[in-house]
Every structure is written in C-alpha cells, then in structure tokens.
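Hi V.,

You were right to ask for the full record rather than a summary. Here it is.
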Amino acid sequence: MRRYELTYIVHPQVDQAGLEAVIADVRNLVESNGGVVHKVEPWGLRRLAYPIRKVREGYYVLMDIGLNAPKVAELERALKLREPILRYLFVRTDEGEEE
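Predicted structure:
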C-alpha cells in the first residue's frame, strides 16, 4: 500500500450533518477499495481561488490514506459521481510504502 493525501472540496450548501455524511461516505469508499484511512482533517469553510459551478466557497477536507495504486483510478471515478464533491486531489506522499 502507498500513502496518499486526498483533499476534496464539498459544496457549501451541505449542512454539518451532511458534511459528516460525505466524509463517512468517502471513508467507506476508501475502505471498500481495500484502503486504510489514517487521519481525517476537516479544514472548514474556505473561499475558493476561482468559482467552480458558480460556487465561491466550499468545505475543505484532508484525508491521509493508505491505498494500493491500481485502486486510485476506481476511487477517482467514484468521487466524480458524488454530487456534493466539487473537486478532489490525490497526492502521493514520500513517506514510503506500507506493507
């Protein structure tokens, strides 16, 4: 397994309970693809650098995950289909590989 940072932006019209549901949904996606969630950091509501779908703010969430490399594409596909997620970004960390 490799370590990744997954950062995603959730639509600002989602309430707090909805935000927690989206975070739980993404956690379940990672775990269902054989991954492990090490840490979740909700950053809160922040202004976007540019409008996305006519939205200027969003809830940022950072997840530190362990995932096999072939499963990243499957997870990206699933994140594209989630309506409240505006954008996402996978970054492979240099912490090495897990066993």
